[in-house]
Amino acid sequence: MIGNAGLVIQQPTILQPEERSYNGGGIGSSNRMMDFLEEPIPGVGTYDDFNTIDWVREKSRDRDRHREITNKSKESTWALIHSVSDAFSGWLLMLLIGLLSGSLAGLIDISAHWMTDLKEGICTEGLWFNHEHCCWDSKYVTFEDKDKCPKWSSWSQLLISTDEGAFAYIVNYFMYVLWALLFAFLAVSLVKVFAPYACGSGIPEIKTILSGFIIRGYLGKWTLIIKTITLVLAVSSGLSLGKEGPLVHVACCCGNILCHCFNKYRKNEAKRREVLSAAAAAGVSVAFGAPIGGVLFSLEEVSYYFPLKTLWRSFFAALVAAFTLRSINPFGNSRLVLFYVEFHTPWHLFELVPFILLGIFGGLWGALFIRTNIAWCRKRKTTQLGKYPVIEVLVVTAITAILAFPNEYTRMSTSELISELFNDCGLLDSSKLCDYENRFNTSKGDELPDRPAGAGVYSAMWQLALTLIMKIVITIFTFGMKIPSGLFIPSMAVGAIAGRLLGVGMEQLAYYHHDWGIFNSWCSQGADCITPGLYAMVGAAACLGGVTRMTVSLVVIMFELTGGLEYIVPLMAAAMTSKWVADALGREGIYDAHIRLNGYPFLEAKEEFAHKTLAMDVMKPRRNDPLLTVLTQDSMTVEDVETIISETTYSGFPVVVSRESQRLVGFVLRRDLIISIENARKKQDGVVSTSIIYFTEHSPPMPPYTPHTLKLRNILDLSPFTVTDLTPMEIVVDIFRKLGLRQCLVTHNGRLLGIITKKDVLKHIAQMANQDPDSILFN
């Protein structure tokens, strides 16, 4: 009993082994009670598609399995070996997930890099080289003209033998758009035909699956194959999307498929979700080259149940995945990501002001993006637009490609753009962002002092401003289309552009007004005071935090990217500011918003339930509703039960002593009932429609020559969770969150009154928040 709330939770009962019982007329009698569950029946204890698992039952089954193995290990050497292998299987599974995730991530990185460059030309030395690798050892490449090399031919050079003039520009423009449309068409067609679940980032669905919901096929082999192929195509098409979110989905597919190799994980849905939590960590590890950030991302953002053992295994899986990707070396620079940077100039306390301004911008952008993207996705679901996914993808791709080609910052891949924006200018940089006056008049080696911006910097600022507007608008329409699409990279790009613009502005302000009070104490003339690349990094963290509402994991991912611990404070300031601002404008992150849009039964653990309602206000049936459908423990025939099953769609049924007393005995799942009755009918001739079903331990004596009775006590949950009708709903919601319940029975003085399901709880929360309660329906 908790306080005087009236909450009663029945503890699981330890059942003694069932005894065979013979009732009635002695030898030759045909009324022996049949117990078909002394041997496990295939399918009993499993779940239908789009149902929620019973966490309590799954954990209890795993404890029983572990206890049995431990007890047997003392009996023989073979049993001891089996016990050791069972304990080691989890670590072996993590090793395999890390190896497979890292290998697929390397393959995706290499392929996407090559296909992105294919839109602009090909390598005449070898078609399989991308632009950078093609010109790696060319003697004609200089730092000023690093894109010019005789081994690389643009499409205009191949088709009309010249790279100069308006016609050559038009040919390159046309080929760029054509390749983008081809890649996008292949991506959306493969998803539509072979694996509809391969679209999107996959993180909202993975959060829902980890909370206990079952979506068959979402983590299957076809989804893995098609997502891997189409992710490369989608990224290469130049659309405003990233591969980092979908890599989490890819890693979870690897984890789910490999689970089938181990009985412990194949047969237990709760144990499998522990593996998927670790796989999500491996996915982020290879996406950003951030193993620790991956573990924290899994803990903070996607996992529902995360015991300490899963933390260790997640760390191991993330470590193996990062090591595998590092061994493949997809970018040829011994780094795990394309935009790894190192800054050398320390930041000053005053710079926290622009960093916080970037945090405010990130929060505003995050809130704006979530509202507009959800509105567009809702329009797609509720109008004719959703029926034409191929046309939608091709139209958005055409608009993106046509707008992107004239601007070098939109034409390059988003990862390369972020790399350029994060870069700290050195003597050998030929980028327009590093086109400062007097850039070679320095005696400080490769570190350059603050200096006046040249024409290239001003030109780059205009182009970046246009790029910022385009990225903000086009990402809204891109995320949620029927192709693999991540949000990490586009969000980081928006923030990095805003940060670089502000950083260059601050740099020029410090150069021309170094005698101002805010600068003169720490920034003398000719010193290297401001690092624009650091502002880009802080802006990227702020915008990503505004969209996803990540905090701790975001900061760790960002400092693992840069390799610098001294920039944690600016990153923390920006991440927290963006979260505060975004939360003030809307409580949900993008993934939670998409979970609600799709009607997934996800019970958010972070939000408090503050309303003073009682269990009796939420339970079914309500007043004037038909009575609750129940089974009796010893008076219903097979035909009666089959009629109830055919006339209802409920996932389970309470079992009572009798309809008059309504005293609760237990709870039985619909799927287990169907499978058990079908199995009994197939395997025993004596079970007919008039056979009585018993949920009791012993049956009363029966007259001779009556039909076989069917004993189904073993599928009965004798300790369902119950609360009284006066239990406050805030306690009921807490029980559902912390124990992962599917349903809870409501009693009054031991008599069954009603039932509360997870969906009832979600509908009630939506109703209390003035939302449409029918939106909590998976579609």
TrEMBL record:
<keyword id="KW-0547">Nucleotide-binding</keyword>
<feature type="transmembrane region" description="Helical">
    <location>
        <begin position="349"/>
        <end position="370"/>
    </location>
</feature>
<keyword id="KW-0813">Transport</keyword>
<dbReference type="InterPro" id="IPR014743">
    <property type="entry name" value="Cl-channel_core"/>
</dbReference>
<dbReference type="GO" id="GO:0015297">
    <property type="term" value="F:antiporter activity"/>
</dbReference>
<dbReference type="GO" id="GO:0005769">
    <property type="term" value="C:early endosome"/>
</dbReference>
<dbReference type="InterPro" id="IPR001807">
    <property type="entry name" value="ClC"/>
</dbReference>
<feature type="transmembrane region" description="Helical">
    <location>
        <begin position="534"/>
        <end position="559"/>
    </location>
</feature>
<feature type="transmembrane region" description="Helical">
    <location>
        <begin position="88"/>
        <end position="108"/>
    </location>
</feature>
<feature type="domain" description="CBS">
    <location>
        <begin position="715"/>
        <end position="775"/>
    </location>
</feature>
<keyword id="KW-0067">ATP-binding</keyword>
<dbReference type="InterPro" id="IPR000644">
    <property type="entry name" value="CBS_dom"/>
</dbReference>
<keyword id="KW-0677">Repeat</keyword>
<feature type="transmembrane region" description="Helical">
    <location>
        <begin position="166"/>
        <end position="188"/>
    </location>
</feature>
<feature type="domain" description="CBS">
    <location>
        <begin position="619"/>
        <end position="683"/>
    </location>
</feature>
<dbReference type="GO" id="GO:0008021">
    <property type="term" value="C:synaptic vesicle"/>
</dbReference>
<feature type="transmembrane region" description="Helical">
    <location>
        <begin position="275"/>
        <end position="299"/>
    </location>
</feature>
<keyword id="KW-0472">Membrane</keyword>
<feature type="transmembrane region" description="Helical">
    <location>
        <begin position="487"/>
        <end position="506"/>
    </location>
</feature>
<dbReference type="GO" id="GO:0005886">
    <property type="term" value="C:plasma membrane"/>
</dbReference>
<dbReference type="Pfam" id="PF00571">
    <property type="entry name" value="CBS"/>
</dbReference>
<keyword id="KW-0868">Chloride</keyword>
<keyword id="KW-0050">Antiport</keyword>
<keyword id="KW-0967">Endosome</keyword>
<dbReference type="GO" id="GO:0005524">
    <property type="term" value="F:ATP binding"/>
</dbReference>
<keyword id="KW-0333">Golgi apparatus</keyword>
<dbReference type="InterPro" id="IPR002247">
    <property type="entry name" value="Cl_channel-5"/>
</dbReference>
<feature type="transmembrane region" description="Helical">
    <location>
        <begin position="460"/>
        <end position="480"/>
    </location>
</feature>
<comment type="function">
    <text>Proton-coupled chloride transporter. Functions as antiport system and exchanges chloride ions against protons. Important for normal acidification of the endosome lumen. May play an important role in renal tubular function. The CLC channel family contains both chloride channels and proton-coupled anion transporters that exchange chloride or another anion for protons. The absence of conserved gating glutamate residues is typical for family members that function as channels.</text>
</comment>
<keyword id="KW-0129">CBS domain</keyword>
<dbReference type="GO" id="GO:0000139">
    <property type="term" value="C:Golgi membrane"/>
</dbReference>
<keyword id="KW-1133">Transmembrane helix</keyword>
<comment type="subunit">
    <text>Interacts with NEDD4 and NEDD4L.</text>
</comment>
<dbReference type="Pfam" id="PF00654">
    <property type="entry name" value="Voltage_CLC"/>
</dbReference>
<keyword id="KW-0832">Ubl conjugation</keyword>
<keyword id="KW-0812">Transmembrane</keyword>
<keyword id="KW-1003">Cell membrane</keyword>
<protein>
    <recommendedName>
        <fullName>Chloride channel protein</fullName>
    </recommendedName>
</protein>
<dbReference type="InterPro" id="IPR046342">
    <property type="entry name" value="CBS_dom_sf"/>
</dbReference>
<feature type="transmembrane region" description="Helical">
    <location>
        <begin position="390"/>
        <end position="407"/>
    </location>
</feature>
<dbReference type="GO" id="GO:0010008">
    <property type="term" value="C:endosome membrane"/>
</dbReference>
<comment type="similarity">
    <text>Belongs to the chloride channel (TC 2.A.49) family. ClC-5/CLCN5 subfamily.</text>
</comment>
